[in-house]
Design a protein that fits this description.
The protein has about 400 residues and is an alpha/beta fold. The chain is built from 15 helices and 17 strands.
Length: about 400
């Protein structure tokens, strides 16, 4: 039987009966378009739980980064195809100064075909998302804002090492609306040390009251090498019991569905028609290109990941080499099995006809003995011609999906 994993990565990653609007083919699949992810590896400071490829912002380091982005774009596969969605993440893109943001967006516009972009997301933190910067981002073409709120409890924010206050969250939302953003997503974290079920529900209530179009709710992950991990090793902090984390996750689903949000992926909830098109590309097997340190790409069956740290990434580019430090080709059943696991992250699941036309396999062919057991035990189910995670499997999705790739 699958077991919960504290700080579940899949609960943070790719019934309401499911999201009926969820697409069955990659949003960027038509017309030869590709999705673009741009990694900005800078923050005002490091959060205690963060294991992402990022560093504290310095002007000279940003200048090096922008020079590298220009070099990478010149040889990027994305330069050869129209871009359908753009996602500028990090790190904290909004910590860049205005001239730096102007140059980054200018590099993207000059080097890539952005004439067919249908969604342009930028991540921001409340402490750096002031009205002037948000207005600039909107004027440069960003039309979707992902705001790293994490909690409305000041104590939880301090535990996580966040710099912003609850008041700044509310101010950033007002500034985003004033700047013209009509598509705003809020990120929340649950299962933080000392957080109660009631506290999680208060966070959800406060988030809904701000009227965002999208909410992502992630279980806190404890990553080795982070400040939070060290605090746990010293006995200063502890994760909640698995049963408590499970209750918190189920409360997230219950409360957001009651507020009119549809759960369309393990940790993502949207108002009707406001699902994140860019992320659906990942989950539905579309092609994408990543720019910047640690950015991943998937093209023509090959997955490649850029060097993680800025210095290693820069060194490769200045040598005239590809910035990719890892490459892997996925073919045949292995590629289909990975596609199945990604599709199962969505509440729609793997629809048989669309999945077979995309991979050459029916979902049932890829289950194997472990998968058939999961189906018999009710961790997987079939509904509307699709294979998907059952509702009881959602809190332990990590373990269930791991069974399919062992």
């Amino acid at each position: 039987m699958p077991t919960a994993q504290s700080g579940s990565a899949l609960a943070s990653l790719p019934t309401s009966p499911g999201c009926e609007k969820a697409q069955e083919s990659p949003p960027s699949a038509g017309g030869g378009t590709v999705s673009l992810y741009v990694h900005v590896p800078f923050c005002a400071s490091r959060c205690r739980y963060c294991d992402f490829a990022s560093e504290v912002r310095r002007t000279d380091r940003v200048a090096l980064y922008l020079t590298c982005i220009e070099k990478e774009i010149a040889s990027s596969p994305a330069a050869l195809r129209p871009v359908s969605t753009v996602y500028v993440g990090g790190g904290t893109p909004s910590c860049l100064e205005e001239p730096e943001l102007l140059r980054l967006f200018d590099l993207l516009r000059r080097g890539l075909d952005l004439s067919r972009v249908v969604e342009w997301t930028v991540e921001a933190n409340p402490g750096t998302a002031d009205g002037r910067r948000l207005a600039l981002l909107r004027s440069l073409g960003a039309d979707r804002l992902s705001l790293g709120v994490q909690s409305f409890d000041e104590r939880v924010l301090r535990t996580l090492g966040r710099r912003h206050s609850v008041r700044e969250v509310e101010g950033s939302i007002r500034a985003a609306r004033a700047a013209g953003f009509r598509n705003v997503s809020l990120d929340l974290i649950f299962a933080a040390p000392g957080q109660s079920l009631e506290g999680v529900r208060r966070d959800l209530s406060r988030a809904v009251a701000l009227e965002p179009e999208h909410i992502s709710a992630y279980a806190l992950t404890w990553e080795e090498g982070t400040a939070l991990w060290a605090m746990r090793e010293r006995g200063e902090l502890a994760p909640p019991e698995e049963s408590v984390e499970r209750e918190m996750y189920l409360a997230v689903i219950e409360d957001l569905e009651a507020a009119g949000f549809s759960q369309y992926e393990i940790s993502n909830f949207a108002r009707p028609g406001r699902e994140c098109t860019h992320n659906l590309v990942y989950w539905l097997g579309g092609e994408y290109v990543g720019l910047g340190p640690s950015a991943a790409s998937y093209l023509r069956g090959e997955r490649f990941v850029n060097a993680r740290e800025l210095d290693g990434y820069a060194l490769r580019l200045f040598r005239g080499e590809s910035p990719a430090a890892e490459r892997e080709r996925l073919e045949g059943e292995r590629a289909a099995r990975e596609a199945l696991v990604l599709a199962l992250r969505t509440r729609r699941g793997a629809e048989e006809g669309a999945f077979r036309s995309r991979t050459g396999y029916r979902p049932a062919e890829l289950l194997g003995e472990r998968g058939r057991r999961l189906l018999e035990e009710g961790w997987l189910e079939t509904a509307g011609g699709a294979l998907r995670l059952s509702r009881k499997a959602l809190p332990v999705a990590d373990s269930v999906l791991a069974e399919l790739v062992l």
